[in-house]
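fyi for ur records
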Amino acid sequence: MPRVMSKAASVSHAAPLSERVAAAAAGLGAVAIAADGCSAAEAAADSFAGGRLLKAYGHDARIFDLCFHPASSGLLVSASDDCTAGVWRRQQGGSAAAGRYMQTASFRGHGDSVMRAVWSPDGQMVASGSSDGVVCLWQPTEAALTSRHNLGAAGTRHLATLEGHPEEVYACVFLQQQQQAQQQQQLQGGSGSAGQPPERLVAASGESLFLWDVSTQALLQAVPSPPVPKAAAAVPERWRPGYLFGVAAQPDGPLLGAACSDGRLRLWAREGGDSAITPLCTLPWNQAMGADCCFAPGGLFCACSKDGSLIVMDVRQGRCLQHVQLDTPLLSCTLLQGSSGSGPGPGSRILVASGADGAVHFVDTETGEAASLLPEAAPVRPLLCAALSSDGACLAASGEAVLLEEQDMLSSTPSSAQAAPSSKMSGHQPAPKWSPMHIWQRSKQAPP
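which gave:
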């Protein structure tokens, strides 16, 4: 059973971005209290813990990334160290597998580990970035979106290959015109409406961003990182250069942000209808590798680091609002908006981060209060990624692969499309290695 624990964290407030936010003083911030007496972070974690937890099996190596379809919490795409990207569908109808997520297709167009997989805003295609330095554009077939069986490679259609990145591709971001993005935010209102077809894609490789035209597959621009200020403190040589490990686009503004391997944050501006990207600035953060970042409407920018630190800043005011220190490395982050009826509050924003301790951590961006959700007592394995559906109804997390015994597979009762073939369990062959996906379907009785 999943467990929720309140999490102590050191917090500082309202420091200027020009100061070293890593030097934030320890101390607990004020706690936002929900109607039932628990904090907003605990209420958010409880709403998932009180719902339905499913496990799905398909990849036999680490899962680096997960992304829900923009218009449906019933469709999910994954990126794995087994060199494939998977398509997952929540099964419908009266079968024994109803409600479960089953892998229905597998994209096999990469020659190395798939690091990122993301749906386009209109939900019609997927971009996957790989350690082979390539971004592939592809789409699940109609059969894969309705099937109760795993169609494998036959369930995907390869659209294009974007080559020329110097190193691994650590991020893929589809760009929407800002007016379209704002209209989508207004129309969405938790309903999960899909957006317009994308015109641009940004990929991160090494220290640079690469701007692509989606329709023509033409490289429009290779954009370097903003320079590091001369007065900036030095970082250990092993963290240089500043690889862009996580990239995000501002939904209601012109900014792109990145959390980088040298412990700094970098910002760029989108210009001329996304015809160009201009480097803006490099910001000091801490002395550990950045892992991921995300934006929220209203100028909120958040990032997490492998030393367990989280930063919350307002890019419009140019100020750091929170610096929270947890006791485990954090490897990905996303934001849970509190606008829906099942959210912890109409004005609250909860940062959801996956941890190396095997837990999903919920942090209130206003107070810094944190709570943790453990999907299982054992085996504890690092969670490398966490994703939320656009309506906030579902949370998925996964990470390192584990060696499963036969009784583990039987107790999880996955479908034949998800489970290992029984022949692999017999004879003297070793038990297979699998990377389970944890998927929470949020309780409808969540605190208001």
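The radius of gyration is 21 Å. thats all i got for now
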